[in-house]
Amino acid sequence: MQDVTLLETLIADLVTEQPAVVRLEKVVKTLRQHFHCGAVVLLKLEQQMLKPIASIGLAREALGRRFIVHQHPRLATIMASREAVRFEPDSHLADPYDGLIEDSPDGHLAVHDCMGISLHVEGKCWGVLTLDALTPGTFDTAAMHALQRASLLVEAAIRMGQIEQSVRALRNQRRDQEYSLSGEASASYEIIGRSAPLLNVMQELSVVAGSDLPVLLLGETGVGKELFARQLHRQSQRAQQPLVYVNCAALPEALAESELFGHTKGAFSGATSERAGRFDSADGGTIFLDEVGELPPAIQAKLLRVLQNGEIQRLGSDRSHTVNVRVVAATNRDLKQQIKSGDFRADLYHRLSVYPLPIPPLRERSDDIPVLAGHFLELNRARLGVRALRLTQAAEHALLAYDWPGNVRELEHTISRAAIKALSIGAAREDIVSIDIGLLDLPGAATASVQVTDILQSNQRKAFPTMNLKDTLNAVQRQLIEQALEQADYKWTQAARILEIDASNLHKLAQRLGLK
Ligand SMILES: Nc1ncnc2c1ncn2[C@@H]1O[C@H](COP(=O)(O)OP(=O)(O)OP(=O)(O)O)[C@@H](O)[C@H]1O
Predict the structure, then answer these.
(1) Is the confidence metric ipTM above 0.85 for this complex?
(2) Where is the Sigma-54 factor interaction domain (predicted)?
């Protein structure tokens, strides 16, 4: 390949619409072809270690290696120079790839040619590019000059990848902002609550966020695991990079592999072009594997490999490439139980749960209930366009007494439902809407009995012979109204004030309960 052709081919590699890592793989392939060598490796400098990002001609396991610069004199020499560096076949400096070259017998490098160049992006050393040829004399002075020129395009390819990544991060950030501005309950990512158990979790979360450890969020459905995963990402060093959400339960088994790891053109019928997977999209950032307990066994094995060495292999490809992704997973399942039943791999569990973070259920942090209720009332107030949306005291007691098997999600839905019902029965007075106990429609006998205890004298409990919720609630409401009427000298407006409900609403309720 002529020099000009090399540059043209590199430019063509550069402008393909593919993920940065795939582009860099194409670049190393082109370089190998041009320089007639055995191996070309692109290594990125990260904390005094060189990490292979793209390579050709090296054993696959080399991608998992990290070369500590000062332990590898050839790499240190390349990094110390801004020019291409060549090592003579009889150089006494050990080659970092000895034992790893695919084409040499046993992978061993006897006499061979080697050259390399340091790469600089935005004025800083980004890493190095190395070329090894098994035939001595392959790299002459002209080859060194050609490498020097080609390195400019490699640097451009790297810079392009960085720019793409920041554009993606900005887009995500903007999307997050748009969500939180939209006022939707489910889209507001602020964690509300101030109970001691919640503050403990928040404290732990901010400590672990700073590390790069995989985190496994555990907790019942609706406790807020997704919200915590977002917070973890926001507080991590990867905050400016993408956070990619994957709902493992919603991945169809047949498509799970290509969705997560990507596929090559023609990998299956319908794969009309090469496509990157979610792990590629999360490169540099975090992937959140929600409901990880639902992953099919075959995908569990592939995921394990990614966690072990950061390598992914597209469906239909025999090559793998590295990605730098922090994995945060969540489940409401008992994974240990799933391991026993053979539904979840023990080795994957240990990889995922390097830092398990349990989130307590709402019933164990009841101090959060009024605060969360206030938050959801405010969201609904804005959505429904009313001046104020309030809970009566009895309704607040009922919320506190209930045990919330569906946790915060259930509370959110309960409030939204009650708010709409309150409006629909005309519970508004000058745009102030009161939600009383009946509108909460809380299921479960426990609620009814505690409401009774809270609201009425204990000796009145005998008045409720059954535990049927509807009947019990009606009975409670009837007694409360009678009690209020008695206190208010049978003046309905005053009784309504005692009960903190709208007078017209009280009349309707009294009629429905047969009190009028
Ligand atoms: N502390 C909180 N502050 C504000 N909203 C919360 C809080 N916890 C949960 N939510 C809200 O409750 C709903 C359920 O939360 P989320 O989806 O994070 O729960 P989850 O634990 O991931 O549930 P599942 O296991 O079913 O996926 C969401 O709308 C979320 O915004």
Answers:
(1) yes
(2) 191-420
